[in-house]
Every structure is written in C-alpha cells, then in structure tokens.
C-alpha cells in the first residue's frame, strides 16, 4: 500500500471528485465513513452525501483559522491489483482508521470513499486541516511518517508493496502536477533500468526532456528531476518523492551493483514497468543467498538478487537485462 496527498483551498472540487458529483467521471463510488460533516437522510433513512452541504460544513470549520489558505487535505491510499480480493470495505475502513490515527489525523472532519472503477483498489480521504478546536492538524515530517506507516500496514495485512508512481497509469490521474509526477517516475524508472551509470542516465533523461540535478544538504546527497509540463509550467520532483528506488543513494547502489555483478546494459524491450521496478528493487538487496520467507511485502515479480545471479550464471536469457524474446518468460516476469 502507498499514499499520496494533495493540498488545496476549495473543498467542493475535492469532494466533487471523490463522490463523482453528477457522475461526470464515471466513478464507482462507495462511501465508507464520515465524521463531523452535514449528512442528511432521505425518506428511507439512507445518508445523502450532497457535495454543496458537505463543502459548507468543511468551510465553516476552516474559517476558524482564516490565516491558513489551503485547509483541504486529499489523501489517496492505494494498493496493486493483486490485493483487490483482500480489500473488503470493512478492511479498507480499518486500514484508513489506523493510518489516520498513526498520522495524528484526529479530532477533525473527514469523509472516506472507495473507488472501484480502476484495476488498483484505492480509497480517497478528504479531511479538514483545521481540527474541531480550530487548530491545525499536525503535519511535521508528514511524508517520512506516511511512508513508514504504509509499510507497516502493508506488512501487517499481508498486502503488496510497489512504487505507486512508476507503476500507475498516468492518464488516470486528474491533477496536472500529479500527472506530470507519475509520467516522470515512469520515465526515470525506465532510464535507470537501462543505463549503466549516472552520466549515461543524465544524458538519456535529457533526451526525454528531464533535467537531473544532484544536490547536497550537509553530508546528505539527493537528486532532483526537473521537467516542463504541457501547460508550460516547470515542475521539480525529488527522487524520494518519485519512489524509494529513485532516491540518490538507491540510484548509486543500483549502478554499483550493475558494475559489481557485471550485468550488461538493458536493450529497449517490451517489459512492464512493474518488472523493471522489481528488478531494480532486487539490486538493492544485500548480496547473499536469502534464508526463508522474505516477508509479506515481496512482489511476486520481484526476483531476489540470488535468483538473478543464478539466472546470469546459468545463461538464462542472458541475465536480468536480456531481451526477453520468450513470451512465456516475459509473462512470468510481468
């Protein structure tokens, strides 16, 4: 499971999207829960989730802190398609509640809705940054805490873990910045997979319209990826925001392992991005034969580093970066 968050100033837009007001986005929506908002009932006693009334409830509470211009918080918790059968509405609600509690998203208004029209099961949570006491919800080290909590929940409930941005279909993302971010993650993943070193990666990304820049903060190194969107706006994403395998230390480790294991460069081939992410993740494992189960977060298409070495030594398809012309082998990987 993974999460990402959007900030905004208008509750109507976020609520209209997750509830698919007027059915404009062809969403399959199931409201899982809400708290602190105006939800009337129809003549049969069923809740009526009216976007205008809900937005007014949120705005009234947000007005307690007029100095905060973006009180809207829109969370998405998402899992790979393999987890669809496990994720009942009850379990989703349990996971959402646990995530919010551990993230200290408490004592505030929220509404949770599941969307069922895409392959990847996911839920949306819109909540008010201004809590019931008129104070801002804590957001210190938000992304770092969120990442750890997602991993803990993934392991606890036996779900799958993958890179959300590189492995998602960018056309399914409705916000321009998110769309560019997801496209960037996919391109950078493809080029890290194919390149042999940092210099080659930088040039290949430049040819695809992405500028890579290494940065330092004290003794810590990082990497930024800069790209211009179709709207002409310049976007900058850190490697850690694009995915765990795209941080600067991870990219360095991947290229070190490619050299250390004498892996040939990857030709352009018809292999899924999920397969690429799995093999890059394998290169980040400690060298050595695994002992026992690697845990609930292991992707089925993520071969262990030991398995990759065995393939290389046995000459199977010329190692992990061979041209997988055998369709059955390719399907096994993806």
List the helices and strands and how they pair.
Blueprint: E1 2-8, H1 11-18, E2 29-35, H2 51-62, E3 72-78, H3 89-102, E4 110-115, E5 122-128, H4 142-156, H5 176-194, H6 198-207, E6 210-217, E7 220-228, E8 234-238, H7 239-242, H8 248-260, H9 273-283, H10 305-314, H11 327-333
Antiparallel strand pairs: 1-3, 2-4, 3-5, 4-5, 6-7, 7-8
Helix pairs in contact: 1-2, 3-4, 5-9
Q: Which keywords apply here?
A:
disordered C terminus; alpha+beta; elongated; three-stranded antiparallel β-sheet; 334 residues; 8 strands; five-stranded antiparallel β-sheet; BirA Bifunctional Protein, domain 2; 2 domains; 17% strand
Protein described:
The chain is an alpha+beta fold and 334 residues long. It has two domains: 2-156, BirA Bifunctional Protein, domain 2; 170-333, no CATH class. It contains eleven helices and eight strands. A five-stranded antiparallel beta sheet has the order 1-3-5-4-2, with helices on both faces. Helix 5 packs across helix 9 (273-283). The longest helix has 19 residues, at 176-194. The protein is elongated and about 70 Å long. The two termini are 19 Å apart. Mean pLDDT is 80; it is low at 289-304 and 315-334.
């Amino acid at each position: 499971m993974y999460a990402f968050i959007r900030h905004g100033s208008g509750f109507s837009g976020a609520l209209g999207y997750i509830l698919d007001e007027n059915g404009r986005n062809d969403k399959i929506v199931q409201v899982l829960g809400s708290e602190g908002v105006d939800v009337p009932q129809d003549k049969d006693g069923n809740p009526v989730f009216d976007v205008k009334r809900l937005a007014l409830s949120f705005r009234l509470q947000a007005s307690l802190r007029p100095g905060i211009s973006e009180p809207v918080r829109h969370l998405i918790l998402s899992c790979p398609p393999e987890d669809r059968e496990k994720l009942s509405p009850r379990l989703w609600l349990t996971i959402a509640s646990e995530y919010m509690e551990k993230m200290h998203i408490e004592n505030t208004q929220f509404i949770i809705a599941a969307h069922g029209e895409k392959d990847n099961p996911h839920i949306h949570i819109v909540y008010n940054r201004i809590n019931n006491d008129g104070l801002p919800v804590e957001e210190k080290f938000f992304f770092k805490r969120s990442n750890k909590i997602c991993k803990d929940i993934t392991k606890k409930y036996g779900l799958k873990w993958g890179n959300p941005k590189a492995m998602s279909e960018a056309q399914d993302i409705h916000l321009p910045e998110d769309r560019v971010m997801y496209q960037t993650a996919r391109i950078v993943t493809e080029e890290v997979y194919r390149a042999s070193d940092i210099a080659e990666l930088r040039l290949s990304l430049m040819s695809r319209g992405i500028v890579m820049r290494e940065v330092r903060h004290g003794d810590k190194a990082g990497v930024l990826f800069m790209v211009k969107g179709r709207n002409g706006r310049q976007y900058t994403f850190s490697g850690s925001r694009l995915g765990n395998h795209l941080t600067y230390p991870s990219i360095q480790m991947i290229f070190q392992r490619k050299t250390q294991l004498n892996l040939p460069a990857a030709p352009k081939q018809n292999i899924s991005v999920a397969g690429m992410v799995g093999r890059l993740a394998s290169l980040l494992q400690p060298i050595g034969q695994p002992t026992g189960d690697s845990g609930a977060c292991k992707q089925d298409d993520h071969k262990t580093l030991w398995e990759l070495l065995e393939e290389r030594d046995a000459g199977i398809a010329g190692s992990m970066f061979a041209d997988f012309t055998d369709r059955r082998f390719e399907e096994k990987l993806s």
